[in-house]
Amino acid sequence: MESVLVLDFGGQYNQLIARRVREAQVFCEVKPCTVSLEEIRRGNYAGIIFTGGPASVYAEDAPRAADGLFDLGIPVLGICYGAQYTAYTLGGVVSPAAKREFGRTEISVKPSLLFEGVPKDTLCWMSHGDQITKLPEGFTISAESSVCPVAAMENRMRKIYCVQFHPEVMHTPEGSKMIHNFLTRVCGCKGGWKMSSFVEDTVAALREKIGDKKVLCALSGGVDSSVAAVLVHRAVGKQLTCIFVDHGLLRKNEGDEVEEVFRHQFDINLVRVNAEERFLSKLAGVTDPERKRKIIGEEFIRVFEEEAKKIGAVDFLVQGTIYPDVIES
After folding, report:
1. pLDDT at 101
2. How confident is the model at residue 327, as a pLDDT?
3. Which of 28, 69, 110, 117 could staple 4 via S-S, CB 3.0–4.6 A?
4. Is the distance from CB of 17 to CB of 9 less than 8 angstroms?
5. Per annotation, catalytic residue among 28, 33, 80, 187
6. Known catalytic residue: 276?
7. Cα separation, 233 vs 226, whole angstroms
8. Structural domains in the chain?
9. Residue 28 annotated in active site
């Protein structure tokens, strides 16, 4: 399955970039920029997209990707900070801009695979205080604005393309076309991926990996653990047991609703643990929100462990984590 990696450098639009890629019917994953070179190699990605970010690339604590990434030969699209990071890493110069650009900006584009089908003069969304002031060797300018001489640059031979603006936002009218051009004309992606096929592929992969072994899931009723539980159940059915720790902090009747959905609608093996008194006694008198969070998390694990021991030996533990939590963790 063809896939693209979105490397997160701390930008606020990382999930939106991933959405645009999926809208082009190409599967993608979002991972922190600190992911290892070996993990990137194993991913066999058709392309990599660098997100924006609030840092300055020349700062000592600026986020950086693994050394050697540009030597993998994988096509790269750098967006905003990602463009500056590319320039800086490959020997160019990034400096504070004499005039910062924020908001809608008109740019002029030059002939490029990235801009095929895009009018020569087009609007985009800029949001940057630094800019590329010297190109790395082998790069050419492919777009400019009245105050930003390097609104886009590229090294067509190495399949590295960079834009100072944000093609992923709706304020860049031709942005989706630019991302589509990168995916199809630069990365060679054919498209055709759909969310339904992702579910089918994931269930098949789980069934093959788990075989006839037992699986245990800590179910909170939230979207992440719930989706994970249903996917595994589709794959192995009654081999899965879910432990639902009801700590008494859910909305009114929500614990009953979770039990109804998973025990009766999905017919999943469900163990409901009513631990309301235990949790509330631990939280009594505690006012600091962070301390409350830690107490709830610690007690949840302890209750889960106690119930898991009653079930006996299992072979796999299910964990579901939504993308924002993966990045934050």
Report:
1. 76
2. 57
3. 28
4. no
5. 80
6. no
7. 10
8. 3-186 (3.40.50.880), 195-328 (3.40.50.620)
9. no
For the chain, residues with pLDDT lower than 50 are: none
> What's the predicted TM-score (pTM) here?
0.76
CA triplet 140, 20, 326: central angle to 5 degrees? 105
Catalytic residue, chosen from 101, 168, 299, 307, is 168
Dump strand ranges (E) for the chain.
3-8, 27-32, 47-50, 76-79, 93-109, 121-134, 140-145, 152-155, 160-163, 215-219, 240-246, 269-274, 316-318
**Residue 168 in tokens:** 């992923």
CB 117 within 8 A of CB 131: no
Nearest to 225 by CA among 304, 287, 152, 112: 304
**Of the candidates 326, 304, 321, 325, the residue with the CA atom closest to the CA atom of residue 241:** 304
271, 241 in Cβ contact below 8 A?
Answer: yes
Per-residue pLDDT tens digits for 138-196:
999 999 998 899 999 999 999 999 999 999 999 999 999 999 999 999 999 999 888 77
Among residues 166, 180, 233, 247, the one annotated as catalytic is: 166
Q: Which two tokens stand for residue 116?
A: 């095929």
Q: 265: which 2 tokens?
A: 């609608």
Distance between CA 33 and CA 55 in Å, rounded?
Answer: 13
Dihedral angle of Cα 14, 16, 21, 23, to the nearest 10 degrees:
160
pLDDT at 196: 78
Q: Are the C-beta atoms of residues 157 and 186 closer than 8 Å to each other?
A: no
Residue 295 contacts residue 282 (beta carbons within 8 Å): yes
- Tracing tokens 């009245």 back to the chain, one arrives at 146
* H/E run at residue 235: helix 223-236
